[in-house]
Amino acid sequence: MPTLIDKTVLLDGEAIRRSLTRIAHEIVEKNRGTDNLMMVGIRSRGVPLAERIADEIKAIEGMRPPVGVLDITLYRDDLSTMAYQPLVRPTTMPVDISGKTIVLADDVLFTGRTIRAALDALIDMGRPRVIQLAVLVDRGHRELPIRADYVGKNVPTALKETVSVKLTEIDGKDEAVLSEIQE
Questions:
Q1: 181 vs 79, which has greater pLDDT?
Q2: For the chain, how are helix, strand and coil distributed in percent, rounded to 5?
């Protein structure tokens, strides 16, 4: 059975905070403010990231964009290969997404398949004006032509490595760790 051996802490709590503050500034700058802006977090760790970015945007602009929660379970392209019964949790959007600038938030960008599923799920809910992507860590190895608009940290990785993000809201602490998969 494969095991994970931690190699490097890529981001500690303070580095995550700084990255999210920078991403919030970049979002406001690129979109020339917050008009029709909405954050949407992909379950599970994308949700607290979207909430934190929304809080940072409020600190910058005085207005907190609404935050949606997106569950992509039924949109995954590997659903038929899963040996277990997947747990589908609710998707909640506080406002209609049609015509909005959606900033989709996730913890790690890898192959792009999670983001493809998220795009499919969003399009089924309405027609946003634009969808942008914010990720804490981009580790490369894309299998689909997807790229993030906002990145906390780019980390070139080997396929035998993995990046794990821990967030206080879910895991009790903030950090991003590069680990090696040992067979």
A1: 181
A2: 30, 30, 35
For 95-125, how does the pLDDT look when each residue is reduced to its tens digit (9 = 90+)? 999 999 999 999 999 999 999 999 999 999 9
- The whole-angstrom separation of Cα 87 and Cα 129 is 30
State the Cα–Cα distance between residues 56 and 123, nearest whole angstrom: 27
Under DSSP, the state recorded for 11 is: E
What residue numbers bound the domain in which 106 lies? 3-182
Task: Give the helix/strand (H/E) hosting 8.
Answer: strand 3-12
Greatest mean pLDDT range, 82-86, 88-92, 119-123: 119-123
DSSP reduced 3-state for 106? strand
What is the number of structural domains in the chain?
Answer: 1
